[in-house]
Automatic annotation (TrEMBL):
<dbReference type="Pfam" id="PF00392">
    <property type="entry name" value="GntR"/>
</dbReference>
<dbReference type="Pfam" id="PF07729">
    <property type="entry name" value="FCD"/>
</dbReference>
<dbReference type="InterPro" id="IPR000524">
    <property type="entry name" value="Tscrpt_reg_HTH_GntR"/>
</dbReference>
<dbReference type="GO" id="GO:0003677">
    <property type="term" value="F:DNA binding"/>
</dbReference>
<dbReference type="InterPro" id="IPR008920">
    <property type="entry name" value="TF_FadR/GntR_C"/>
</dbReference>
<dbReference type="InterPro" id="IPR036390">
    <property type="entry name" value="WH_DNA-bd_sf"/>
</dbReference>
<keyword id="KW-0238">DNA-binding</keyword>
<keyword id="KW-0804">Transcription</keyword>
<dbReference type="GO" id="GO:0003700">
    <property type="term" value="F:DNA-binding transcription factor activity"/>
</dbReference>
<dbReference type="InterPro" id="IPR011711">
    <property type="entry name" value="GntR_C"/>
</dbReference>
<dbReference type="InterPro" id="IPR036388">
    <property type="entry name" value="WH-like_DNA-bd_sf"/>
</dbReference>
<feature type="domain" description="HTH gntR-type">
    <location>
        <begin position="8"/>
        <end position="76"/>
    </location>
</feature>
<protein>
    <submittedName>
        <fullName>DNA-binding FadR family transcriptional regulator</fullName>
    </submittedName>
</protein>
<keyword id="KW-0805">Transcription regulation</keyword>
Length: 231
């Protein structure tokens, strides 16, 4: 049964509770999940928390929402399976960032190359919209963490391979450290700002090697700042 939760760590608790419910109810692919309202009442949480959890499951490719019909399971889920987040067991921010950066290089270089090959005109419009917003905020504030992340997510979407976004979702906690001003420095990785536009240009030109090169420029700046700012 779904039961009310204590008022801490709401999102993760709802993820766990919904996973347990799916597993214990033996729901299978194609089965409909409880409605948004039913989940809100059963778990005593707000609409925004339920929507955040559904978005999380959608990003992992385990549910889909059909307009006017509800949210349906695409594959069986439990707390021990695909949706569990990956994390690093390290108390040192410098080490955690450098280890995560090694994974980012592999994923983001490949994502940029695949996006350059497969992007559609709609993808280009979305990426450019995110890039324009990133540049606007960056110029106004000198930093643009959330907007920077949104740009990279749009590139992932342009690959038309859902595994890129699923991997990011599993590593979100580790990855998001890059966009939350590590070392309390607003200027972290600021020098990478111009390379986002050149990465976009490479994707527009459908030039995978150029996309890889521009992605590496971004991540090289990130690595330099990690090492310099953590001294």
């Amino acid at each position: 049964m779904l039961t009310p939760l204590p008022s801490i760590d709401r999102t993760q608790q709802v993820i766990d509770a919904l996973s347990d419910f799916i597993e214990s109810s033996r729901l299978q692919a194609g089965d409909r999940l409880p409605t948004e309202r039913e989940l809100m009442v059963a778990l005593s949480v707000g609409r925004s928390t339920i929507r955040e959890v559904v978005t999380h499951f959608q990003a992992l490719g385990v549910v889909e929402t059909r307009k006017g019909s509800g949210t349906y399971l695409l594959k069986p889920v439990s707390k021990a399976t695909i949706h569990m987040p990956l994390s690093l067991d390290t108390a040192h921010l410098r080490d955690a960032l450098l280890q995560t950066l090694e994974v980012r290089r592999g994923i983001e270089c490949e994502a940029g190359m695949v996006a350059a090959k497969r992007r559609t005109s709609k993808d280009i419009a979305i990426i450019e919209e995110k890039l324009d917003e990133m540049e606007r905020v960056h110029i106004a504030k000198g930093t643009s963490g959330p907007e920077d992340l949104a740009f990279h997510l749009a590139v992932y979407d342009a690959t038309h391979n859902p595994l890129f976004k699923q991997l990011l979702e599993q590593m979100r906690g580790s990855f998001e450290r890059f966009w939350t001003h590590p070392f309390d420095r607003q200027d972290f990785a600021r020098r990478s700002f111009p390379f986002h536009r050149t990465l976009f240009n490479a994707i527009v030109a459908q030039d995978p090697e150029a996309a890889r090169a521009e992605t590496l420029k971004i991540l090289d700046v990130v690595e330099e700042d990690i090492k310099e700012m953590s001294k």
